[in-house]
């Protein structure tokens, strides 16, 4: 697997608090990768190190074969849409495009103008007078027209209504396919990630908890319902992610690559959101990285 981002033992400390620790992962190139985790898990810290805005306290990070922020050529390879999809309220749409052209040596003006026309954005309109969805689309246009190899997005749709989110994510998928982009997308909205991403990384308590292809994660997580029993009695190949019990019944979310043969269990598939929530709220909080290759 070719990695767009590779980290080994990466950590970032603020005073006595580690915002990210012992982070070892490979972000596959040519994929749309979702990054999830609760507030304070280290998502924004990781993304800021990917784009070169923060230096690590420990460990190493390599982005597209080089050091993050390591000179103009390296910076040109990475596009970044930060939280709140920042634009300049006093500048028009056209002025944003002219600014993008001046600041980015690989700028593709034709791509930017075609996208603005397709979105129906008025070039003469100031960004401060655009809707939230339109500002997000303008910020995405700037990121795409930079012609990066890796596009990093930090919670770009959190403040948008459902229709604007759908339109933004549709535009992102189209751009990723058209320009062969690697995408790293952070979001709390797991349903949106399931729609557009094919690989998932979960941060929990400042560490990587799960990483793998989404299809594999969905296939390997099962919901078992049956007579009450101690989860420790399950076969060794069935890793319990979360468990709940009544007086007579147990409900377990397990991760396994093997069929469940015990006829006492009712076996059901679960969605990605259920899997993510189980790791965030389940009793098993061991920091070990679980990787599906």
Describe the structure.
This protein folds into 2 domains: 3-204, Rossmann fold (3-Layer(aba) Sandwich); 216-285, no CATH class. The chain has a 7-stranded mixed β-sheet, with helices on both faces. It is α/β, with parallel strands linked by helices and 293 residues long. It has helices at 43-50, 72-76, 93-103, 109-119, 132-145, 162-179, 190-196, 214-220, 272-281; strands at residues 3-14, 17-28, 32-36, 58-63, 78-81, 150-154, 182-186, 199-204, 207-213, 221-227, 239-245, 249-255, 266-269, 290-291. Helix 4 runs antiparallel to helix 5 (132-145).
Overview features:
alpha/beta, elongated, Rossmann fold, 293 residues, nucleotide-binding, ATP binding, ABC_transporter-like_ATP-bd
Q: How many structural domains in the coordinates?
A: 2
Terminal Cα span: 9 Å
What is the C-level CATH assignment of the largest domain?
A: Alpha Beta
Q: What's the count of strands?
A: 14
Q: What is the CATH topology of the largest domain?
A: Rossmann fold
Low-confidence segments, ≥5 residues, pLDDT <50? 283-293
Helix content: 25-40%
Number of helices: 9
Major sheet summary line: 7 strands, mixed
Keywords: ATP-binding, Nucleotide-binding, Transport
Domain ABC transporter: 5-230
Pfam families: ABC_tran
GO molecular function: ATP binding
Summarize the structure.
The protein is an alpha/beta fold. It has two domains: 3-204, P-loop containing nucleotide triphosphate hydrolases (Rossmann fold, 3-Layer(aba) Sandwich); 216-285, no CATH class. The chain is built from nine helices and 14 strands.
């Amino acid at each position: 697997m070719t990695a767009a981002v590779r980290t080994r033992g990466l950590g970032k400390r603020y005073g006595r608090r580690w915002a990210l620790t012992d982070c070892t992962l490979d972000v596959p190139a040519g994929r749309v990768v979702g990054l999830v985790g609760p507030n304070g898990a280290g998502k924004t810290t990781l993304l800021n190190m990917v784009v070169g805005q923060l230096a690590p306290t420990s460990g190493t990070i390599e982005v597209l074969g080089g050091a993050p922020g390591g000179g103009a050529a390296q910076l040109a390879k990475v596009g970044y849409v930060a939280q709140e999809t920042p634009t300049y309220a006093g500048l028009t749409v056209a002025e944003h495009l002219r600014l993008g052209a001046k600041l980015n040596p690989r700028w593709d003006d034709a791509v930017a103008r075609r996208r603005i026309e397709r979105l129906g954005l008025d070039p003469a309109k100031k960004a401060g007078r655009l809707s939230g969805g339109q500002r997000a689309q303008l910020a995405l246009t700037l990121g795409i027209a930079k012609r990066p190899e890796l596009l990093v997005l930090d919670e770009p749709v959190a403040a948008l209504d459902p229709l604007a989110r759908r339109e933004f994510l549709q535009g992102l998928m189209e751009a990723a396919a058209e320009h062969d982009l690697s995408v790293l997308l952070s979001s709390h909205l797991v349903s949106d990630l399931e729609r557009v991403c094919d690989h998932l990384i979960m941060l929990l308590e400042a560490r990587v908890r799960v990483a793998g292809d989404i299809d594999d994660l969905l296939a390997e997580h099962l919901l078992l319902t049956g007579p009450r029993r101690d989860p420790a009695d399950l076969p060794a190949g069935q890793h319990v992610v979360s468990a709940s019990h009544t007086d007579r019944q147990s409900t377990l979310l397990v991760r396994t690559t093997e069929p469940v043969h015990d006829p006492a269990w009712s076996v059901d598939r679960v969605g990605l959101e259920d899997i993510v929530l189980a790791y965030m709220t389940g009793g098993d909080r061991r920091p070990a990285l679980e990787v599906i290759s």
